[in-house]
């Protein structure tokens, strides 16, 4: 015991010697060192050689250590110095040298040259980085130094030169921060779309910074470089409590250098500067579509953080980047002290004074910042709070980046799918481009906003005001295209429209003595000259005004007053009143007589004027005849109220109706007033699909079936088109057979159809179970922020004729949770992108794959629903895997038929309790129309295979076996590796799938930095379930959580296998066994070499028959020794690997337990 203390003191003395030599060499200016004499071969001469750069710091350190009786060697190899850049390849013999010094029976790494450089760079007496290069941890040293003799890496797994070059280019301070790089571990990042995202995990509070540079080797063309905006404005940083995200949006193609800096927020580090932690080379092949400079705010960090919390502001919105589909955005905060909040809205191309009108701050118990953004784009919200000691002074608390998406960007956000062009997509693209051309072709002068005036009655009419009707001849009718998906709101500003409608409503509430007074008040008193504005004012006055309130002092025969008064008695119509008012407003107008389909009209029914006579208008506005139906624009809500008063609802869609839509419901007596190139006959009109006002309201059009009667044989798919900006549209349908029967053999007829929505189209797919006549009603609704709970309304109706019974049994669709198939709104809100172009996926070889692209780690689950008439009720196997940022669900069909795949998701980073639950975000129809081979798969619970929720949350990833369904054809051994981003503890269980027999003795777990390896031996043929569990190292609950499940099929036992040693306690904390992995009685090997890697151990031993045999230390963590086992084979003796971690020297913790 006394000898050990002497040895400890000696080792401490050696460490002090090495430290003194290291500090002297790194703080002394060796270039100015002078001696009196320089004898040949002396140490003095060596310093002279160093000054002439004829020797190295490593050689000098080794010589001085020799004079101090320290064992020291010089190592040569490659080092990532200040000239190194990510992507460089090392060539030649070596570019650097360093040392390994033997202290405390271990070799330790030292680099005096780089420590001296760090000291000079920091210009301080003692540098933090000095210590990093003294006795450096080999697991950290390998990131910057690679010796030619790889055994001097002192690592359980040796890194090749190519692997060393591919390690992230991190700097010494990186290891002090505890930052985890996540998916961006490679030094070179290649971006096909110009956008690169880094998500860094920081377990302790840190402040970050960044620098972006256009690589000098990228392009020598200065003019191109000068065209780049300030690159600092092309990158933003978003901070959360334990995570920081950087997003770079490249303004053009090229190579960029990105450096990330960090600084501790501990009080002791307050005066320290940001220090570089990692450098990347970013190769951009396409510029980012949204590479505009960021709004000019006070800071480079977006989102609430430590500063806002210290200033007493607790944010409800944790994310610093807020994406909105609507102009109205709210940010809410809790106050932890009395304060006032001031807010500034910023954007590059908009004056601050204009933006300040768009913001409202409510300073109450809870602070609410309400934004009304004027147009799509990116806005910066600067939030300042009053100082605690001086409420007149404001300090910057935090800032948000608010992205208000335009219609085009919404479409991209919702439907960014990498796929080929189907016929539907081509139709949609042509359809959208046609609409833009039609809009551009109609030149309408800007309409001025009518200022709201305080009214106490109608204005007085000037005595010289003369009201005269339009006397010139009207233009002849010609085909007119307004655009099938265009409304009045597409031609002018919404605020202008609201001012017109408000004025019309105010005028409707006043009493006018004459028609002249009315027209003066409505049109001429406000100096309205725009033709479209005049038509709008007349239309809205007529749809608002109560007929019973229309009275004049004098009504002469054939006067305008007579036309208006007759409206009460039915002797006149809305169309005649609209015509009269337009004529006196200076507009050409036409009363059109014809037939209109009522609610009771059936498809194909003969129509007569006696039953379906109607009148509507065409008004001539800036060179185009436009349809208006002011009568149908007022829809009765109820029959009669208790007061006997009718109530009406206004329908916007009967103002400026497109002729191609109006022909579905209105058939004029004069064909030229269809305003169509291809005139529709009465028979064609009668057999068109029956549409409702909601069809017009949603901007729908028939894309596939223009005739309302469809003759079917097998399957029918009806396509409805709509504009891409209507992202909230949803559709359902009902199916009724003859005599309004809604069932077939006890199954609802709706089960024989499905609805799928794409960005431009909705598809209704129906497979009728027997011949007969069916009525198909399609319903729609539009979810908006102000109306998510509105009910579905019918939009159109088709009549289906199944001419004969199907030749095969028609299988109903699976009874899934949602009425619509494909991705839902929640799918896109989580930043997910579908990898399949349609919601229907056909199997190939009995398998169908659904792919989902993720921009961040999202937890996903799935559930399969079977058809109600499925012959087998066995659920198909669903294989879930994640490779990089692509998740996929593979459904293995058990028989022909249809399967419903429901996908559920949650964001592990959410702080909202409601959003922490899994919610359905998509569902896909899997169709198997092929004969499936009889695959006998074991039954596993839904969602069992593949990554489990905690797998994503803990930042794990598969490195080799991505597919959780593994087939071993020629061997019965497999090695599975997982990548880790934090310290973890793992365990695993191997079960025979059918019998449930535990075979976990055939699993061995090996741990390395950032990698955990599972060695699995399969004892017999058949299916086995490998269940991997674990938890983060700092968790003290000893709870082991499910992480990943495999199903392994072993078809051949190529060699006899034996159990691995039992693994206990500390073995799971980074230990690694080189040899032996297995001991068994059949070995008959007398001398067995034990070689292992045990971090933090003071001594490692083999215990045989209660006697410890010490292993020799070869480095900081390596231990080895030869043990004679000849007399123990066949005795069932335990061979125990154990370690002492300090404290009681006679106490050892068992790591592994072999059995002979």
TrEMBL record:
Keywords: Membrane, Transmembrane, Transmembrane helix. SUPFAM superfamilies: Cysteine proteinases. The chain crosses the membrane at residues 57-79. Pfam families: Ig-like_KY, Transglut_core. Residues 161-295, 311-411, 682-813, 825-938, 948-1061 form the KY-like immunoglobulin-like domain. PANTHER family: HILLARIN. This is Kyphoscoliosis peptidase. Residues 527-629 form the Transglutaminase-like domain.
């Amino acid at each position: 015991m006394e000898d050990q203390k002497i040895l400890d003191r000696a080792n401490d003395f050696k460490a002090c010697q090495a430290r003194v030599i290291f500090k002297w060499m790194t703080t002394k200016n060796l270039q100015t060192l002078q001696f009196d004499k320089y004898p040949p071969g002396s140490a003095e001469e060596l310093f002279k050689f160093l000054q002439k750069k004829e020797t190295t710091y490593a050689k000098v350190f080794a010589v001085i250590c020799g004079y101090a009786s320290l064992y020291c060697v010089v190592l040569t190899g490659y080092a990532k110095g200040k000239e190194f850049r990510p992507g460089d390849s090392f060539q030649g013999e070596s570019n650097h040298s360093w040392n390994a010094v033997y202290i405390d029976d271990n070799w330790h790494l030292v680099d005096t040259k780089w420590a001296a450089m760090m000291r000079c760079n920091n210009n301080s007496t003692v540098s933090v980085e000095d210590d990093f290069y003294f006795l450096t941890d080999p697991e950290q040293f390998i990131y910057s130094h690679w010796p030619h003799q790889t055994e001097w890496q002192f690592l359980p797994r040796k890194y090749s030169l190519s692997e060393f070059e591919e390690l992230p280019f991190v700097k010494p301070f990186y290891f002090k921060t505890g930052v985890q790089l996540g998916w961006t571990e490679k030094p070179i990042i290649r971006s096909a779309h110009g956008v690169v995202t880094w998500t860094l995990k920081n377990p302790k509070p840190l402040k970050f910074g960044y620098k972006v540079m256009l690589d000098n080797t990228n392009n020598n063309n200065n003019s191109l470089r000068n065209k780049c905006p300030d690159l600092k404005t092309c990158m933003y940083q978003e901070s959360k409590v334990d995570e920081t995200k950087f997003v770079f949006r490249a303004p053009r193609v090229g190579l960029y250098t990105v450096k990330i800096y960090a600084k501790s927020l501990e009080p002791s580090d307050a005066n320290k500067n940001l220090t570089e932690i990692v450098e990347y080379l970013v190769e951009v092949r396409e510029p980012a579509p949204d590479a505009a400079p960021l709004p000019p705010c006070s800071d480079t960090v977006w989102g609430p953080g430590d500063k806002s919390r210290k200033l007493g502001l607790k944010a409800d919105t944790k994310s610093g980047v807020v994406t909105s589909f609507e102009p109205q955005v709210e940010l809410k905060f809790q106050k932890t002290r009395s304060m006032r909040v001031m807010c500034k809205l910023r954007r590059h191309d908009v004056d601050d004074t204009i933006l300040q009108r768009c913001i409202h701050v409510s300073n109450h118990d809870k602070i609410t910042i309400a934004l009304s953004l004027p147009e799509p784009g990116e806005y910066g919200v600067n939030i300042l709070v009053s100082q605690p000691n001086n409420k007149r002074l404001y300090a910057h608390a935090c800032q948000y980046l608010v992205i208000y998406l335009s219609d085009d960007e919404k479409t991209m956000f919702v439907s960014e799918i990498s796929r080929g062009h189907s016929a539907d997509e081509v139709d949609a693209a042509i359809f959208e481009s046609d609409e833009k051309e039609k809009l551009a072709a109609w030149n309408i002068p800007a309409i001025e906003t009518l200022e709201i005036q305080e009214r106490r009655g109608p204005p007085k009419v000037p005595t010289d005001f003369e009201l005269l009707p339009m006397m010139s001849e009207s233009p002849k009718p010609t085909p007119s295209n307004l655009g099938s998906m265009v409304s009045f709101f597409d031609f002018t500003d919404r605020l202008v429209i609201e001012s017109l409608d408000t004025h019309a409503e105010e005028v409707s509430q006043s009493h006018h003595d004459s028609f002249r007074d009315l027209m003066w008040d409505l049109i001429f008193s406000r100096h309205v000259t725009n033709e479209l504005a005049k038509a709008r004012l007349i239309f809205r006055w007529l749809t608002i005004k109560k007929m019973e309130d229309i009275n004049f002092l004098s009504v002469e025969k054939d006067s305008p007053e007579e036309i208006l008064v007759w409206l009460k008695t039915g002797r006149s119509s809305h169309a005649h009143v609209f015509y009269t008012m337009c004529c006196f407003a200076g507009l050409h107008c036409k009363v059109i007589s014809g037939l209109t389909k009522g609610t009771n009209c059936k498809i194909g029914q003969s129509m007569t004027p006696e039953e379906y006579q109607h009148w509507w208008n065409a008004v001539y506005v800036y060179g185009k005849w436009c349809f208006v139906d002011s009568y149908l624009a007022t829809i009765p809500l109820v029959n009669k109220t208790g007061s006997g008063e009718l109530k009406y609802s206004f329908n916007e869609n009967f103002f400026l109706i497109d002729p191609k839509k109006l022909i579905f419901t209105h058939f004029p007596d004069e064909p030229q007033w269809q305003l169509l190139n291809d005139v529709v006959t009465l028979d064609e009109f009668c057999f068109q699909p029956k549409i409702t006002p909601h069809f017009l309201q949603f901007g729908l059009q028939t894309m596939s079936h223009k005739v309302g009667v469809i003759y079917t044989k097998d399957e029918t798919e009806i396509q409805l088109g709509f504009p891409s900006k209507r992202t909230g549209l949803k559709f359902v349908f009902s199916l009724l057979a003859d005599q309004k029967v809604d069932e077939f053999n006890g199954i609802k007829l709706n089960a024989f159809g499905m609805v799928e929505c794409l960005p431009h189209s909705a598809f209704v797919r129906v497979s009728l179970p027997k011949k007969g006549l069916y009525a198909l009603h399609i319903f729609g609704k539009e979810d908006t922020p102000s109306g998510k709970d509105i009910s579905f309304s019918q939009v159109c109706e088709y009549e289906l004729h199944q001419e004969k019974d199907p030749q095969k049994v028609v299988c109903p669709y699976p009874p899934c949770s949602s009425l619509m198939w494909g991705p839902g709104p929640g799918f896109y809100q989580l930043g997910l992108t579908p990898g399949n172009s349609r919601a229907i996926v056909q199997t190939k070889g009995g398998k169908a794959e659904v792919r989902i692209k993720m921009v961040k780690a999202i937890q996903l689950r799935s559930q399969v629903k079977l058809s109600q008439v499925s012959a087998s009720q066995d659920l198909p196997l669903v294989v879930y895997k994640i490779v990089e940022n692509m998740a996929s669900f593979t459904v293995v069909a058990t028989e022909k038929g249809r399967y419903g795949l429901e996908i559920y998701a949650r964001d592990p980073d959410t702080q909202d309790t409601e959003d922490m639950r899994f919610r359905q975000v998509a569902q896909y129809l899997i169709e198997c129309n092929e004969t499936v081979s009889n695959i006998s798969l074991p039954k596993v619970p839904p969602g069992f295979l593949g990554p489990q929720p905690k797998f994503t949350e803990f930042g794990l990833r598969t490195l080799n076996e991505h597919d959780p369904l593994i087939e071993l054809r020629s061997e019965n051994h497999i090695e599975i590796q997982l990548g880790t981003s934090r310290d973890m503890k793992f365990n695993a269980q191997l079960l025979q799938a059918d019998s449930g027999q535990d075979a976990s003795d055939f699993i061995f777990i090996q741990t390395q930095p950032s990698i955990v390896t599972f060695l699995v031996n399969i004892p017999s043929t058949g299916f086995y379930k490998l269940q991997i569990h674990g938890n983060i190292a700092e968790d003290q609950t000893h709870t082991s959580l499910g992480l990943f499940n495999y199903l392994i099929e072993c078809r051949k036992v190529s060699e006899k296998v034996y159990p691995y040693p039992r693994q206990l306690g500390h073995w799971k904390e980074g230990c690694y066994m080189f040899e032996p992995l297995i001991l068994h009685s059949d070995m008959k090997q007398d001398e067995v070499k034990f070689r292992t890697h045990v971090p933090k151990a003071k001594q490692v031993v083999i215990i045989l028959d209660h006697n410890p045999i010490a292993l020799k230390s070869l480095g900081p963590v390596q231990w080895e020794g030869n043990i004679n086992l000849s007399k123990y084979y066949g005795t069932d003796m335990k061979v125990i690997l154990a370690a002492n971690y300090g404290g009681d020297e006679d106490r050892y913790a068992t790591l592994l337990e072999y059995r002979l």
